Amino acid sequence: MDDDAGKAPRNPQTDAAGTQVIAVAEDWAAAIVSDDAARIASFMTDDWVIVSETGISTREEFLSVVESGQLTHSAMTLVSPARVRIHGDTAIFTGRVTNTAHHLGRRFDADEWTTDVFVRLDGRWLCALSHITSAAPGPD
Predict the structure, then answer these.
(1) How many structural domains compose the chain?
(2) I need a labelling partner for 35 at 20 to 30 A (CA). Which of 29, 42, 70, 86 fits?
């Protein structure tokens, strides 16, 4: 039986765009671990927000705690295959990410499902929204 039966044909443009989005997400993770607010900001739209269990935080709020040193990251690793879907100039990136952060001197180790919505502006993929959900613990 043909495993591709019923699936849309592969589109080289979509495949190339998906590869670009994965590369941008990897570079953005490296920027976050660098704790360089300006470098992190270069991957975000001006109206970027992150949604987490505490609600919505703006780009300015996030970058200010990074710039002040109140929030640092020492690791950020994609631990699942990335799922990328392209819809014109919008891309949805989903993956499971582990990270180590320090907030106000306290260490946090997180295992989260992350969804980032990227938009292509002036030929560059920028993140417009991030959503994080804690991953359920696995069986012992």
Answers:
(1) 1
(2) 86
